[in-house]
Amino acid sequence: MTLTLVGLGPGHIDDLSRRAWRALETASTVYLRTERHPCVPDLPAGPAYQSFDAIYERVSDFAQVYATIVDEVMAAARSGPVVYAVPGDPLVGEATVTLLLERARAESLPVDVINGISFIEPTLAALGVDALDGLQVIDALAVAAAHHPPINPEFPALLGQVYSRQVASDVKLTLMNQYPDGFPVTLIHGAGTPDAVVETLPLHEIDHNAQIAHLTALYVPALGPLTSFEAVQEIVAHLRAPEGCPWDRKQTHQSLRQYLLEETYEVLEAIDADDPVELSEELGDLLLQIALHAQIAAEYGEFTMADVNRALSQKMIRRHPHVWGDVSVNGTDEVVSNWEAIKKQEHAQKGVKRESRLDGVPKDLPALLQAYRYQQKAAKVGFDWPSMEPVAAKVREELDELLTATDADHRAEEMGDLLFVLANWARWLEIEPETALRAANAKFARRFRYIEAAVAASGKAMETYPLAELDALWDEAKATGL
User: How many separate helices (H) and strands (E) can be counted in the chain?
Assistant: First the structure.
């Protein structure tokens, strides 16, 4: 008993190898994954040909289609020699072949693979592209099912099995998460056949193409140099190398701490300014800090960026069972509740025991945000006011205590108490106090700059302006919407 897997080539009968021809003409029965292949009418006349096209028409789920084909081929192979023929090469984009090889190994069934020319070689010829120039070969169905393309944009990609306009539409939507809508891509129809057609068009138009069929592939050129995360990692690794930059080589996790904080605040500033151009730049600066820390860790054998990516991805999947599992949720409150419960389980599994529920709040948070988080944590276990009215009363109480404080130390303490209860009042009002105060600071800065500009235009020194006139300018700024 032997299972022979034959590649039929890209389409033209002249591309079928002599070894494949002999295997076909000496077989009693040849199982074809599909008859929809240009060379099928010209195959040797001796054997009986049996295709699985009816399964594709009967079953909508591809995984089930492949499983059914594999079951039937394996059943036949247990009774005697079997030849199973597929388009192209058996090991390029053939899910049934992969499954058959696994099953054959498990059952100790001998397998003979007769290679064929895949869709790749004639496609490269039609494009005039060298595969060794970093070409990535990907199943279009995997891209269609994804939300972000699994493609390094610095290098070209060839997507096989773009067999319908629906697949092209799904592929387009995924690719547009990384490539511009008008990015020029190329559709290749029937590569390796006399009717091959090559068309270059904007990405957003590919699913409008009427020629898309079962022999269509999509070529996505490189987006350009320095567009990938790998490029960032290469630059950072070069900076840290012996021939790199003395300043970068000198840095440690601790020495970079201040820059991580500064870049984070600059990102926040760009967000508050609603400036996407600035935000893009500042996110890059923040990413540099992450890449530097990962590179330093890699050099000391602590961890690599791959470890960071894997841990983050696993955590997101674990903590979103309503997305990657069978958990149902009703609203964001249940999402947060599940998140905290899963987080607690993770800590228990790692042997992490926190002495206090407040231990999860970073000690270096800005004080107002830290107060807000502390009170969120306390409220989750019932340590909270029953309603908002007592919170407002507490604000008034703390204000009175501040006003009656008799010395500097006492006033500082009462001011802290007042700010703390104000953070709690903000929580009851569903206002994040740090963001609210930041917005108030920005508003003050806009109006004060308006006053400064008006005073400068008058040619007078600001210190000589009466307070009443400065107040009038403030009201002007306010009236303009600043």
Answer: 19, 10
Q: What gap in Å lies between CA 172 and CA 461, rounded to an integer?
A: 61
pLDDT tens digits along 350-384: 887 777 888 878 888 889 999 999 999 899 888 99
CB contact at 8 A, 135 and 158:
yes
Q: Tell me whether residue 472 is exposed, middle or buried, using C-beta atoms within 10 angstroms of its C-beta: 0 to 12, 13 to 18, 19 or more.
A: middle
β-sheet bridge partners, residue 48: 29
Q: Domain spanning 121-220 has what CATH number?
A: 3.30.950.10
Give the pLDDT band (50/70/90) at residue 446.
very high
192: CB partners within 8 A, 6+ apart: 9, 10, 11, 12, 15, 117, 119, 121, 122, 123
The CATH number of the structural domain formed by 354-431 is 1.10.287.1080
The CATH architecture of the domain made up of 229-301 is Orthogonal Bundle (1.10)
Q: Report the largest interatomic distance among the alpha carbons of the chain, rounded to a whole angstrom.
A: 108
**Per residue in 241-280, pLDDT tens?**
999 999 999 999 999 999 999 999 999 999 988 999 999 9
- What pLDDT, on a 0 to 100 scale, did the predictor assign at position 310? 97
Q: Tell me whether domains 229-301 and 354-431 share a fold.
A: yes
Residue type, 334: E
Across 409-421, b (16+ Cβ under 10 Å) vs e yields eeeeebeebbebb
3-117 sits in which CATH class? alpha beta
Q: In what order do the strands lie in the sheet with 216-220?
A: 136-139, 157-160, 216-220, 184-189, 197-202
Given pLDDT bands bounded at 50, 70 and 90, which one contains residue 62? confident
Cα–Cα dist 342/41, whole Å: 59
pLDDT at 348: 83
Contact 299, 313 (CB under 8 A): no
Q: Are 220 and 185 spatial neighbours (Cβ–Cβ below 8 Å)?
A: yes
Q: Which residues contact 406 (CB under 8 A, 6 or more apart)?
A: none
Return the domain boundaries, the chain. Answer: 3-117, 121-220, 229-301, 354-431, 434-479
Quote the strand ranges of 193-315, DSSP E.
197-202, 216-220
pTM assigned to the model: 0.81
> Can you read off the two tokens belonging to residue 431?
């206002």
